Fold each of these.
Amino acid sequence: MTAPGDDSTGDTTSQSRQRSIVKLVLDEKTFVRRRPEVEHEREVAIFDLLEDNTFCLKGDGIHQGPYHVRLKLAEDRLRFDIRDALENAVKEIIFPVKPFRMVVKDYFIVCESYYDAIKTSSPSQIEAIDMGRRALHNEGAQMLLERLSLDAELDHTTARRLFTLLCVLHIRG
């Protein structure tokens, strides 16, 4: 039983939603039709991210969430336009994508191999390719996690989903 005025009701759901992204928009001005597999990955990444993520900006006096995020790739930079629930600008995080290029390129190559393997290869071959794909995905997510750690707290799962979206933004055709 809690005492009057005791706020320790254990409402972790509202606390976790406070420190999270509740709306995410990809700025895709150069949007092109993508393969169904890629569109599915994008939709799943956004859905999963919004369902379960940990994201909170660092710094004194900084808004503690929940956040609306617009993710954009422009001029070889990844831009996180972070806003509050009323769409007021809170912070913009911008960093170069050049350090990610090799892992994104390798990830695309392995993904192509994976999609091709699904059609014709044995389960053990598919599993081996998938392990490589997951390893590259984890590497990219770790890079993103380390870069964002200067400005925000997030978990590995959130970084993985954001890395998927970074890859989607790289697709031009």
Amino acid sequence: MAEETKAPAASSGGESRPERSERPERSGPPRGPRPGGGPGGPREGGRKYFRRKKVCKFCVEKIEAVNYKDVRLLAQFVAESGKITPRRLTGVCTPHQRRLSRAIKQARNIALLPFAGRAQ
């Protein structure tokens, strides 16, 4: 086959972009199915697991009012750093999470819970 030469396209004063075949290849790992599976099912060759849906502790135990004086209960929802643990990690429903965060803040204000964890 004979070598083909292409004339550069006329551009309006700027640098022309390289053609698609001249662009560098992507670096990094090859793209494939994501770990954990997707809509198509679990990944091939991986271990199959079932993640249970988290249920609200307050709904299960039928606790309506979250008391700011119940430090043992509130401490379960505060991380070691002193932050309030988010809903997606604890599994608490939205209304109870709001009451819980309000109770934690009240307990902090009257020094039943620390604002911050231990310094590292």
